[in-house]
UniProtKB/TrEMBL annotation:
Domain FAD-binding FR-type: 59-179
Name of one Pfam family that matches: FAD_binding_8
Keywords of this entry: Membrane, Oxidoreductase, Transmembrane, Transmembrane helix
GO molecular function: oxidoreductase activity
Name used for this protein in its record: FAD-binding FR-type domain-containing protein
Transmembrane segments: 12-31, 37-55, 331-349, 369-393
GO cellular component, one term: plasma membrane
CDD domains on file: NOX_Duox_like_FAD_NADP
InterPro entries: FAD-bd_8, FAD-bd_FR_type, Fe_red_NAD-bd_6, FNR_nucleotide-bd, RBOH/FRE
Length: 516
């Protein structure tokens, strides 16, 4: 079990890792039957674990509609899911979610994968946005299915269901606070697809600025440093447009400076260094002077397409369930207390009326273990289950009277379940494809694109130290271990512990995880 948890094994044979780790059920049963005398020390953690599994099962059983799936030019996949309009503040920008596509393939039916979001909880479109880079078997299979559906739509072939529009969504998990807003200056550093949680932070700050929730003690300046290998990967950063969220964020006192570094030397055709303005220049012009071989390689690149669901206009949208371990605290507490109380009541009654009434050498381990397992099932499912059912019914009744999500604000077609799975399919219309081909190639962010260069963290932190005086600067890093180590070292060097004055800056380092 330990060996399959290693990153090398888990990324290549996820199915085996997933199956072997479910042997914890067998281990738990063996332990209860052979070491029953220790049950008093571990029964509460076992009960909490079973309750958590119950709530996760309830949340994950809902089939959530995928509003749209967009394959970016870098090959990354952008998915949009609907959120309950009454619970759009239930997650935070640095939250992560589990995703599952049951009909992707038989071997991947039970696979849950962990992803960070790029959307903000205050987004009025009531959508959860996730960007996935195809690296493993599951993500590559998802990308292939989407591209196949788009190709069939282009060629007018009979449309078949590549996989259901349904997805299992479970969460949120991770950070429970928006700690970054306490810093007046934030430094965001992301490598590759690691920029996705940083985009959620940018979106959240922009939404707060537009809603005039910012004051003098909160974020006023953001520096983003994004390292990518190829120019095409810039489309992930461009997937969030600050002008769509808060068009006048600069007039409201928010300053955002973006620096993108393209580290692949082949992008420069032998040039030592090039610098392009993100706002005014077409970033694809950086590739125009490459040799013929490199240009032919670009012809095999993925063309960006947006894939929508074919649905009835009046069909309801299945949103992410709010009944789960991260749902309303009062309901979670009632579920826990009722389940624990049900277990102890049933265990006490069984000791009085079953164990003590059997006088002929009542087996200590096995029969009592049977009783404990029965009491766990009774307390969790027969007492805690009705509470969860009541919670679900009240949420359903409350959602029925609330307005449906306004999904047209961002030009995304809605998706919801049809009558049968045979009627569900992805389709990419010619209009969608034309819109992607004519999409503006200039980045909406203010900053510089550095071609064929790598960031020198010592110089960057020197300039930050000169620019600001006496501030607590939050540094959030989402990238490789070497990048995190280098940035952490610079934060330590540029933070004075001895001899600090009122003009000295303090760099607070935070590591942001974007994958499991």
């Amino acid at each position: 079990m330990w060996s399959t948890s290693l990153s090398y094994f888990r990324r290549r044979w996820y199915e085996m890792f997933f199956g072997i780790h479910h042997l914890y059920i067998v281990f738990l049963l063996f332990w209860m039957y052979h070491a029953f005398w220790t049950i008093h020390f571990f029964i509460l953690p076992i009960l909490l674990f079973v309750i958590d599994r119950l709530l996760r099962m309830v949340q994950s059983r809902r089939s959530v509609d995928v509003l749209s799936a967009k394959v970016l030019k870098s090959g990354a996949i952008q998915l949009h899911f609907p959120i309950d309009p009454q619970a759009n503040q239930a997650y935070h920008a640095l939250s992560s979610w589990y995703l599952r596509f049951p009909s992707l393939s038989r071997s991947m039916k039970l696979q849950w994968h962990f992803f960070s979001v790029t959307s903000a909880p205050s987004d009025e479109t009531m959508q959860l946005s996730i960007i996935i880079k195809p690296l493993g078997k599951w993500t590559c299979a998802l990308q292939r299915r989407l591209l196949l559906a788009a190709e069939e739509a282009r060629s007018n072939q009979p449309r078949k269901c590549p996989f259901s529009f349904k997805a299992g969504v479970e969460g949120p998990y991770g950070d429970e606070t928006d700690f970054y807003i306490r810093y007046s200056t934030i430094v965001l550093i992301g490598g590759g697809i690691g920029v996705t949680p940083l985009l959620a932070i940018l979106s959240d700050v922009l939404h707060r600025t537009r809603a005039t929730q910012m004051n003098a003690s909160q974020t006023r300046s953001i520096h983003l440093y994004h390292c990518i290998r190829k120019v095409e990967e810039l489309c992930v950063l461009n997937s969030v447009n600050p002008n769509d969220i808060c068009p006048e964020y600069e007039k409201q006192g928010l300053r955002i400076c973006v620096s993108v570094y393209v580290t692949n030397s082949s992008s420069t055709n032998g040039c030592k260094y090039r610098e392009i303005d993100l706002k005014t220049a077409n970033y694809l012009s950086a590739k125009d002077d490459r040799n013929e071989t490199e240009q032919n390689e670009d012809e095999n690149c993925i063309s960006a397409v947006t894939i929508h669901a074919n649905r009835s206009v009046n069909s309801p949208v299945e949103t992410i369930s709010t009944v789960g371990p991260k749902g309303k605290s009062s309901w979670v507490a009632i579920t826990m207390l009722s389940s624990i109380a049900g277990f102890y009541i049933s265990w006490g009654l069984s000791n009085v009326y079953i164990v003590k009434n059997i006088r002929n050498n009542f087996p200590t381990n096995y029969n009592r273990a049977h009783i404990v397992i029965g009491c766990i099932i009774f307390g969790t499912f027969l007492l805690g289950g009705p509470v969860v059912m009541l919670w679900w019914l009240m949420r359903k009744r409350h959602s029925a009277g609330s307005p449906s999500p306004n999904l047209r604000k961002v030009n995304i077609a809605t998706a919801s379940p049809l009558e049968t799975q045979a009627q569900e399919y992805y389709c990419a219309t010619e209009t969608d494809i034309d819109q992607e081909s004519s999409e503006q190639q200039c980045s909406p962010w203010n900053g510089k694109l550095h071609i064929g260069d790598r960031p020198v963290w010592s110089d960057i932190f020197d300039s930050l130290e000169k620019e600001y005086n006496g501030q607590n600067i939050g540094v959030l890093v989402s990238g490789s271990e070497s990048m995190q180590a280098d940035v952490a070292s610079e934060c330590q060097k540029h933070t004075k512990v001895l001899g600090a004055s009122s003009l000295s800056n303090v760099f607070h380092y935070h590591s942001v995880s974007f994958e499991l």
